[in-house]
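User: I would dearly like some help making sense of a protein record. I have put the entry right below:
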Amino acid sequence: MTSQYSPHKDPLISVIMATYNGERFIREAIDSILNQTFSDFEFIIVDDGSTDDTAQIIQSYSDERIIYIKKELNSGIADSLNIGLVESKGVYIARMDDDDVSISTRFIEQLKIFQHNEEVIFCGSNVSDNNSKPLRTPEVHDDIFLELLFRNPVFHPTVMMKKKILIDNPYKIDTVPSEDYDLWSRLIFKGKFYQIQKPLLYCRVHQTSVTVTRRHEQLQQNIHIAKFMFEKLGFNNLKNHEENLRIFASKDYNISGKMLKNLIFWFKELKVINQSKLVFPIEEFNKVCDEQLERFLVSYFTNQKLYKKVIPYFYLNSNFKLLILKYYLKKG
């Protein structure tokens, strides 16, 4: 694949990066895109009203692939990405964040997935973090879909998508800071997802990251996103469904014994519904449900006083009872 960028024709890829006061890391992010081994792309950088030296850094580049859009007012990442989407001319949209670094072969490897799998509309990858630790993601569509029901298993800046799908399903401004999770929850019904099982991006987590500064808002948005997916798949009308969905989606591990009991029965009901509707493979679905419930069980039995642990314990199946016993034996 040797296609080269030409200003006289539309590029194959449109890279969209939103930035706001990104002077600290943006040069390294830009360089990692410009140094891709596949060069037939345009690089749309939308500046969301930065007040630091971000603009000067971007304008110091003379590469004709860069399209710089400066917004006068800060209106958020979803609006910035949609502006970039409207301006884009590529067949594929590649996302990039202003504080991450893409591996030089990222684009070429993602394009190979699209070219060999016509039904794929979305391609992400694993990442490595600050400690060079690989962070894995589910690979194939069904596994991604199942995990998406319970959490966001996608690293946003690794993603490449078909523009024809995205243009009809843009980012929703009112879902920030979970705009990516919301988008995946809608796109997953439009075509196949795939994630390359090696790191194609170095992802920074620092004190100004959204995952750090707006975590509470993100969890609240996740409740609405999870509700949308559960209802669309037919997982509704369960006992205490709204409350259990809130506890689960917001990762509220500080719950009472009654809440834990309700959560145990809720997961049991989910398994029964899936077994009758066969939305997901039964064994895989049950395994993911148990993994999710296990987090609440360990937290509850770790932090509650002994007399509060007795009743919930009797509602557990034998596997979970054994898990709790092993935990205490190991602790002792």
Residues 282-303 form the longest helix (22 residues). The first strand starts at residue 13 and ends at 19.
